[in-house]
Amino acid sequence: MADNHSASQRHNNMAAIHSKDTKPEMIVRKWLWNRGFRYRLTHRRLPGKPDLVLRKYRTCIFVNGCFWHGHMVEENGNPVACRFFKMPKTNQTFWQNKISRNQERDKEVQLKLAQMGWHCITIWECELKPARREATLLSLEYTLNHILLEDFKRLHPYSFDDSNLSFAAETER
């Protein structure tokens, strides 16, 4: 299948695509802000410059486009390309190399962040489509709260014997 655009039109289209303030990223940012989660954008000191950094939760959030990061989903136990990821028909070796390098870089960055003690969350563009958006964002909220509670338990380990405690609703023994 031939490209419908001329080389200069295709170049202009691809040059217009930016990595900051994308629609999926804006959806996540607005949702987090409205829920009271505070974050920083593109922290330059961290590897990979995560899209969102929540220091209180020691969490980095990457909002990835399915095409640019080669999103694969699992169907019947087999990895299959996401329906929003289609390998271009023209210049395939270039695109295969570019996308596979992006995937490798994603793994390297997340490994470095994990070694530094950061949690990494990747949200895919397809998970923010209207049909799945609310479930994805609620899952994100649950995950962030779980991280906060687990870190709190780890930092403030206290235990006490509650067998001798009586509660107001209980009768005395």
Write the layout of secondary structure elements.
Layout: H1 7-15, H2 23-34, E1 40-41, E2 52-54, E3 59-64, E4 72-75, E5 78-81, H3 92-115, E6 119-124, H4 133-155
Parallel strand pairs: 3-6
Antiparallel strand pairs: 1-2, 2-3, 4-5
Q: Average pLDDT across residues?
A: 85
- Rounded to the nearest angstrom, the radius of gyration is 22 Å
What is the 3D form? elongated
Overall tally of structural domains: 1
The CATH superfamily bears the name: VSR Endonuclease
Q: How would you write the strand order of the largest sheet?
A: 1-2-3-6
Order of helices and strands: HHEEEEEHEH
Features of this protein?
173 residues, alpha+beta, Endonuclease, Chain A, 4-stranded mixed sheet, two-stranded antiparallel sheet, 4 helices
Word description of this protein:
Helices cover about 40% and strands about 15% of the residues. The chain has about 170 residues and is of the alpha+beta class. The strands form 2 sheets. It has a 4-stranded mixed beta sheet with strand order 1-2-3-6, sandwiched between helices. It has a two-stranded antiparallel ribbon with strand order 4-5. Strand 2 and strand 3 (about 60-65) form a beta hairpin. The longest helix has 24 residues, at about 90-115. The mean pLDDT is about 85.
Short structural description:
The chain has helices at residues 7-15, 23-34, 92-115, 133-155, and strands at 40-41, 52-54, 59-64, 72-75, 78-81, 119-124. By secondary structure, the protein is of the alpha+beta class. The protein has a single domain (18-143), classed as Endonuclease, Chain A.
